[in-house]
Amino acid sequence: MTKVLALLGSTGSIGRSTLDVVRRHGGRFRVAALAAGRNVELLKEQVRQFRPAFVSVETEEGACEMERFVSALDFPVEVGWGGEGALRAAVFEGVDMVVSAMVGAAGLVPTVAAIRAGRDIALANKETLVLGGPLVMEEARRAGARLLPVDSEHSAVYQSLRGHRREDVRRVILTASGGPFLATPVERLASVTPEQALAHPNWSMGRRITVDSATLMNKGLEVIEACRLFDLPPSMVAVRIHPQSVVHSMVEYVDGSVICQMSVPDMRGPIAYALSCPERVECGVEGVDFSSLTLEFREPDPRRSRCLELAYEAMESGGTMPAALNAADEVAVDAFLGGRIRFTDIAAVVEAVTSRHRPRSLRSMDDILWADEWARDEARAVVEGLCLDDGVGRSGASAL
């Protein structure tokens, strides 16, 4: 039976990998709706190949361009744009599973709408659980929707838990590559450039997640997501630096046994598993070469992992604090990529915002949206202060 998909974030790295998996199994999966950002040219190619019934882009201008394009096709395609377009893609009629791969907090509302519509979710947008936490999990329980993790770490945990009792778990261990600056002297981190931060040694990812990998904020957000997804306290989720990115995460049981999931670093693996679970399908990923394999694991360096610590603190605080943490990070990373603040200022911006935030209990989506907006305003003010302190901005940071 063909599984009908809606893909939110089709032109991003996860979206492109998802469509590669679909391409390999044309009879097994069909794409009914695509939602993209501003890359209209790539979306046109995706429409030609996968023939969705509905597409959405970020801007009205992009939608006008898509309207002109689809009018010349030999099959009908409806076009939407903005938040409403993404929302419509998420709940498009006849869809069985929504691949949630939009970047950042923008993915929360359409993902929750898909859950409420009873759709299964292949979840690559970690912000949905970082911000929404217990509200999202309760929505899923109420609607009977499955949340299948696409992040390689959470997919690894999900696979390592299957067939075992949750009460037998001692802890979950998430692995982190350490990013491009693992061997960079701490005193030189302030001068790294956006180009250097975007050069991840193992993975091909979007800009924000790549910078977050370098600061370990991405791992911090994954700790929060793991706590939500697997119903664990922060004390039961550990992080270990694993530069090879072959062991994607581990589950340690009360008898001392450790079960892990291993594969070469390629997102098509966890995507394919989420789409076909509990079955497995070929997805173009090569096997691990054990003849040359070396595995290293180490504790995170406290001098490099302030963002990770802030994420643990936010999870302990609960309520709207994780939403404030995420929003502040999005603003700080954007400022760094724009040359306005230093790499080491990212953690400083997040800490300044979270230290001022007085978390509210999560009673509704309005609480999440309030915290997100409040934290963005605070973060922008902190960034502006850092730029003024510098005098000329941060774009002239020297290379390593």
Describe this structure in words.
With 400 residues, the protein is α/β, with parallel strands linked by helices. It contains 15 helices and 11 strands. The longest helix is centred in the C-terminal third of the chain and has 26 residues. The C terminus is likely disordered.
Draw up the topology in text.
Elements: E1 3-8, H1 13-24, E2 29-35, H2 40-50, E3 54-57, H3 60-70, E4 78-81, H4 82-90, E5 97-100, H5 108-116, E6 120-123, H6 127-143, E7 147-149, H7 152-161, E8 169-176, H8 194-197, H9 207-215, H10 217-230, E9 237-241, E10 247-253, E11 258-262, H11 268-276, H12 306-317, H13 321-337, H14 345-356, H15 365-390
Parallel strand pairs: 1-2, 1-5, 2-3, 3-4, 5-6, 6-7, 8-9
Antiparallel strand pairs: 8-10, 10-11
Helix pairs in contact: 4-5, 5-6, 6-10, 6-13, 10-12, 12-14, 13-14, 13-15, 14-15
Summarize, please.
By secondary structure, the chain is of the alpha/beta class. Helices cover 46% and strands 14% of the residues.
Count of separate DSSP helical elements: 15
Radius of gyration: 21 Å
N-end to C-end Cα span: 54 Å
Strand order, main sheet: write it out: 4-3-2-1-5-6-7
Low-confidence parts: 392-400
Share of β-strand residues: 5-15%
From the structure above, extract its key features.
alpha/beta, globular, four-stranded mixed sheet, 15 helices, seven-stranded parallel sheet, 400 residues, 14% strand, single chain
